[in-house]
Amino acid sequence: MAYSIVAGIGFGTAATHVVSTIVSLNFTARRGLAVGIATAGATGGQLVVIPILARVLDHTDWRTSYIAIGVCALALAPVVLLLIRPRAADTAARRERRVDAEPIAERLWFLMRSPTFHLLFWSYFICGITTSGVIEAHLIPYSVFCGFPVATSSDAFGLLMAFNLGGMVLAGWLSDRMNRPLLLGAIYILRGFSFILLMFIAGDYPLLILFAAMFGVFDYSTVPVTASLAASHLGLRILGLTMGMLTAGHALGAALGAQMGGVLFDLLATYYWTWLVALITALLAGVMCFVIRENRDRGWLVPVPA
């Protein structure tokens, strides 16, 4: 219990919403690509660190592995402080005529009154259900339930993470070049279609691999596009608060998705209904994103008055 509280605070404060906010404030040109590359580090770290930890565990115990991770995280803190300067962020914020003394209640009230925020929030809530919720919690158990060995299931999940990294960078690159609501909606809808493949993977290894590749491309690729829309539609001056609220919604969706998958399996002895719910909600998120209007000139391209 103590670990879950401390780790929850740590994982919640040092997460993709902080990274995407910092990068968005420090980049104007190619902002989407920059956010995509930066946030892809979350997936890249899994591809690199997990195999190393697996080998460390062959020669030591899990406590030593956790201590090693903690030491590495502490060592990165001064590196971040040295490499990330506040000047670029402050300049970008001034372009939006920020009001430093604006109370947080007024910022929250602005978000609560914004239709765009609600569309982004609830679509990101569904994003949490369909990614961290049902897939990260239940894909490997489901694969084993379908008759695949644990090692094979784990390899498929690793492949998913590899395509995840590429998908985030690609989505960031595309968000600089095309209609972002259309892009974000398409990502959710194509993610939803991938659950149809998942319903039929039993005994079909090539189909499992195809699902891992397809879902991986459309997994975390929502992050850079959502951050780009939040920056331009809701403003840089409250981007940190906006991304924090959106990520909180994503976390709530993830918790709901993980719980839902377990409850439905216990009741019905099948994952079919879990994947069906994920399919329907992903399609709903896509439709919600199509309602957002593209506006690249608002917020982060406003000139500073003389």
Explain the overall architecture.
- The chain has one domain: MFS general substrate transporter like domains (Growth Hormone, Chain: A), CATH 1.20.1250.
- By secondary structure, it is mainly α.
- The chain is globular.
- It is 79% helix and 0% strand.
- Helix 10 runs antiparallel to helix 14.
Explain briefly what this protein structure is.
This protein is mainly alpha-helical and 306 residues long. The protein has helices at 2-13, 16-26, 31-39, 41-57, 62-83, 86-94, 104-112, 115-145, 150-175, 180-198, 205-217, 222-234, 239-268, 272-291. The N and C termini lie far apart (55 Å).
Write the layout of secondary structure elements.
Layout: H1 2-13, H2 16-26, H3 31-39, H4 41-57, H5 62-83, H6 86-94, H7 104-112, H8 115-145, H9 150-175, H10 180-198, H11 205-217, H12 222-234, H13 239-268, H14 272-291
Helix pairs in contact: 2-3, 2-6, 2-12, 2-13, 3-9, 3-12, 4-9, 8-9, 8-12, 8-13, 8-14, 9-11, 9-12, 10-11, 10-12, 10-14
